[in-house]
């Protein structure tokens, strides 16, 4: 583990990737409070919401109100998901300074999810990325299904590498590699990251794991050993009730931070405040926290 | 990850370390069925029960009936926990051929848990180990609290090493190093294992993690990288309801096997049958399985 980074930046995706996959609707005021609480933990990157059409993601239909309502702390980044120019316009109207675009490494997933091939989805981003560049807006790129696809099964590594390389070439400052369905194990995660890192600089890569099969922390450890230093996670493991059958929540930020601090890796995050926020969110979602460290630390 | 072993032996501790820590009492018939189901998965080591006094562990008061009732498959080991000569006698009466003894690396934990110092507890085992040797009975040794203690906090590595060395010297063929309260993180787990392996052969060591803070699989991965090839785990994550506050169940065997198979490591275990057994046990315990892989695979 000699290659472990000294510091890791957590990209907190609970308010977006978490809430958009929860059945329970959270009020606009609570979404704002969530982001503000997360800011108070010391997180540097908080994905605040999504400007995808409310037709597709009703949970985040109030994106503009949420973004306008949060208190942005200087130095903290608040990216929002943007699918196209219309979403970009809505985001910019409320002062968004960083966006995220998304596509999958799996052709089958892209077809089913956004009714477009990978190349068509990349073409749709081109004007958004051109405008972002002109406006000085930073763009993060997501590649999903990097370790498996619910429709096509195996996803060729070459496809993951190609999509990551294209997004980076189009101007994304960071590419988040997502195991959307959580099927990956550490050896495969490591091999995937190494393959991408051969074509995109490692310091422009992030990893994004879901804990569907309980593998997320082990996968993150394997990727830290390769040298990645940006990790996506969601407070309280938001994004799928951990007690529902087939749940597939994001890895819990509390569990990630607990591991990183135990490894002597700095995050700048106050774990106690994060745990408190996780329990607060779980209360709003009407369930227990999906974070094991969160549960353990709440009673210790 | 070049040092990963090609094959790992799982020591299934659900029927003992799992059930003794569950609030729900399981019937004798169900305990027998559990062990028989586990045998059918291909597991090679199944800790069947405990001959600790029923005064202390009422959940396993039927140890003799359980052991007498299971169908022992040739080549599979069925160790049972034995605290003293009286327990040894009870175990031998029903044909036990392998036992496990236990002590802690923490003085404070030993005092509170068994009202004896570490040295006193080792002295208590001496006659049991002498008789086991004479009878041709294999003995496994547990060292608990190797990464932290609920009473004294930090546990010096030197204490872990000393206790492991003594148990090995007294004739234990294998020493299981247990993070009883689940506080460990991968770097500490690795350092602990390396320290012990400097004085006890690595192939006589096993690791035993609880998933209290969600760290178990990452810790196991770190220990596999050191070269350990024996891992304790409990089907369904038995040993503390995963939905209760401060739960501290064993790492789920299903999650471990899923990871190992994903890493290309053989276990000889049929994961589908293990998942089925985990759901069956959860039903008997009146709760959902504590295994994430178990939940995911049950619906896929």
From TrEMBL, chains A, B:
Keywords: Lyase, Metal-binding. One of its GO terms (molecular function) is metal ion binding. One of its GO terms (biological process) is ketone body biosynthetic process. Pathway: Metabolic intermediate metabolism; (S)-3-hydroxy-3-methylglutaryl-CoA degradation; acetoacetate from (S)-3-hydroxy-3-methylglutaryl-CoA: step 1/1. It holds the Pfam family HMGL-like. Its EC number is 4.1.3.4. It comes from the Bacteria. The keyword Lyase applies. Residues 8-275 form the Pyruvate carboxyltransferase domain. The keyword Mitochondrion does not apply. Belongs to the HMG-CoA lyase family. This is hydroxymethylglutaryl-CoA lyase. It comes from Lysobacter arseniciresistens ZS79.
